[in-house]
Every structure is written in structure tokens, then in C-alpha cells.
Amino acid sequence: MKITSILTLAALCGIARAGSTADAHAPISIMGDHTHNAGEWMLSYRYMFMDMDGIYFGSDAVSAGQVFGAGYTVAPRRMTMDMQMIGVMYAPTDDLTLMAMIPYTSMEMTHEIFPMAAPLIALNGGSRYFTTESDGIGDIKLGGLFDLFGSGDHHMHAGISVSLPTGSIGEKDLIPGPGGRIPRQLPAAMQLGSGTVDLLPSLTYLYHGNCWSVGLQANGIYRTQTNAHDYRLGHRFNLDGWLSWCPRDWVSFSGGLSYVWEEELAGLQSDVSLRPPFAPARLTVPTAFGTNYGGQRIEAIVGVNFLVPGGPLENHRIAFDVRLPLWQDVNGYRLGTDLTVTGGWQYAF
């Protein structure tokens, strides 16, 4: 009887600790990492900045000259993406947590024109460089997390979400070509959504120790169809592992690794030019071709979480993390990931 009481008390303490210390949540860039008790709500806001700088072919960094040598007329040089995401979670029962996420994305890509493409440079006002931009609401995600196992400090849950095609795939910007710099269809890399209904499954394991915690999450994206512009983004798989140390209840430091795999884009991008009319033997830009999408990479994750201990913002969470690529192997010619920074706010009530 005494042993049972001690074990029960230890389990309850573990649960209380997991919900009331900074390390109860994963690094802020990892979503769907925790569930809630029945009747509990959580609001969240995330801001993510991604910088893609430098061209890769496989795992090798290459120059724009090598892209031109492969037959392309335009080479991407740098891309930045800013994403803001509002999230809502609600648990109707102890075993089910519902969630919704609405993103707003802004992207910018700088391009360089092949020096020998004099007609295109002339149509670009004499400059070899031009930039395209897009911004707006992305694909809204709705889903739920289902508790599978919970015993003391161990916890496991599964998730399934649906990504709705609310983000535009018809974004245009001023691109040099016949008729000068006029609005033309942007490649898929600069579109705001997938244009398809996508399934997002996940499986998460958590352990909360005395002053530390560990987590492992596998998640993916399964594209269910071809979109209205005759292509389908590649399926995706992601595996994140992290370890958090909590020297005080109100602050934790985390480190981890992330593996990302994404397949090539399938199909043709209708309304995206594949060959320049003044040089039909050449290709336009790598992002117009599905073989230059996807690949795999391993990233290091370093983060910090704060849980405000008192005052008007008591129990509000503020968190930041940075992802740095350790290795990447891309498909075809494409920009490599240089840096991803995420910051966010969470509040449960």
C-alpha cells in the first residue's frame, strides 16, 4: 500500500512538473509537441526567419557559373522567408487536443542572369540581377493530438492534421522576358501554398526527468493530389530529437538534431516558362523544373525557453531557437539552407 502511494505521488509530481516548468515544451520550432488537460486552451504566436544563401548541387556548393554551364539562363542567388503563425489549441478531453494554425508568409528571391543572355539583360533594364517577391496567407492547418501512453514522466502521443489549400499558388511578379518586365507566374518555390489537401501525421515521445527532459518526434507531409497548376510538391519526412536542461523552473536550455527529407516536385508548373524564346536551346531557371526540388539535410537545434514566474504575464512562455545545417544534399541545382531562426509566445489557460 505504501509503495503504491509513493509511486502514485511520484507520477502526479512528474505530471505537475511537466506542465509548470520551462522545459515542458520542446524548442519553439517544433510544433505539436505537447497535449493539454480537458478544458484547457492555449494561444500561440511564432515568427520564423529562414535564409537560403548559396547554390548547391547535391552536397557540393557550386557557383552561378556552373548553373549557367548546365544550360540555365537564370540562377537563384539568395532567398529569404519570413513566416508568422497564429495557433490555437483546445482539449475537449484529457485524451484529445485539437489545434489550428494560420500562417502568413513573405518571401523574396534574388536572381542572376547569364552574362551571355544579352536580350534578357536588355529587357531587364541592363541589369544582370532581379528580385521577385510574394506574400500572403498560407495553408491553414487543422488537426488533433491523441494521447497514446502516459505513465509517470513518460508520455507518447500521435497527431494527424489536414493542411487546406488556402495559400495562393497563382502569385506573380515582375520578371524580365518578352515584353519587358511584366507580371509572370512565379515558380512553386515562391508560392504561398501547396495547392493541395495534405495530410500531416506525427508521433511524439517525451520524458521529463528531475531537471531535464528529452523528446523525439517524427512527422511528415503526404500530398494527396496534383494542384490546379499541374504539379504536386514532394512528400516530406522530418525527425527531431532534443534534450532540455532546466536549471530553474522558469528557464530551460535545449539542444538537438533534426533530419529532413523531401522528394522532388512531380509534374509540370503550368504558366511557368521552361525555355527562353530568344534561346530555345537553353533552360530558364532551376526552380521551373521539379528535379531541382527536395533533398535532405541534418540540422543542429539550439534553443531557450522562458516561463514567466509571476506578475501580469505569469505562466506566459517566451522561446527562441536557431537551426544550423550540419549537412545537406539537395536534388539538382537549388539554394541551400543557411540559417533558420524561430521565436514565439505561448499562453495556456
UniProtKB/TrEMBL annotation:
Signal sequence segment: 1-18
Keywords: Signal
Protein name as it appears in the record: Alpha amylase
Organism per entry: Haloferula helveola
